[in-house]
Amino acid sequence: MAELETTPLPAEHTDTQTIKMSDTDSQNVRHHHNSNKEHIDKEEPLAHTDQHPLSVTELLASCPEARQYAVRKIESFADVIAHARILAPMIGIDDRTYQTAQDRIGPLATATTIWAMMQFYDRIKKAGAYFRALTVGSKSEGFDPVRLIRQLAASHDLRTDNCPRTT
After folding, report:
1. Cα separation of 62 and 166, whole Å?
2. What is the pLDDT of residue 161?
């Protein structure tokens, strides 16, 4: 058997802290699993509430003021949101305020709030400030646009029930 000849390593390779791996770095990458599922395609609810979800039909019946400005038929929640984006600047809500509300409470809740505000817009002095307070400001804690729509529907029903009949 031949004896192995040992030669000292150059000084640059004597550092015991540095370890050179022989395989490529890609073999050492670990897979990370995210246990929080994202549901991108699912339609989000109008608001977090114990009440039943609001339907497009109920929204249309509760908010005739907003509905009358629609240039096309409102048939889905996507139509509701698109129409709210048109209504918002008409009542003094700028794009930044709208986007902030949408980020905070969601696109459908933001749109529903705009629709509801159209019902009593004539009684609001500063619609932009009122909208900001409801959706992201001091009054936003506990604000539920579904409850507001249902209150509007109830008050609308009371007004139509008290109208004299002309038959």
Report:
1. 23
2. 46
Angle between helices 77-90 and 95-105 (to 10 degrees): 140
In whole angstroms, give the CA distance from residue 119 to residue 64.
7
The count of structural domains within the chain is: 1
Query: What residues have CB less than 8 Å from 99, skipping those under 6 apart?
Result: none
Of 131, 129, 165, 161, nearest in space to 148 by CA: 131
109 closest CA partner among 139, 84, 87, 133: 84
What is d(CA 77, CA 34) in angstroms, rounded to the nearest whole number?
30
What residue type is 20 in one-letter code? K
Query: What is the Cα Rg of the chain in Å?
Result: 30
Look at residue 111 and tell me if it is in a domain.
yes
The answer to whether residue 26 is domain-embedded is no
Residue 30 resides in a domain: no
Burial of 127 (0-12, 13-18, 19+ CB in 10 A): middle
The string of DSSP codes covering 24-47 is: -GGGGPPP----S----SSPPPSS
Q: How confident is the model over 116-163, as pLDDT tens digits?
A: 999 988 888 898 888 998 898 876 788 888 988 888 888 765 454 444
Q: In this structure, is residue 28 part of a structural domain? A: no
User: Which domain, by its residues, includes 139?
Assistant: 56-160
Angle 127-135/95-105 helices, nearest 10 degrees?
Answer: 20
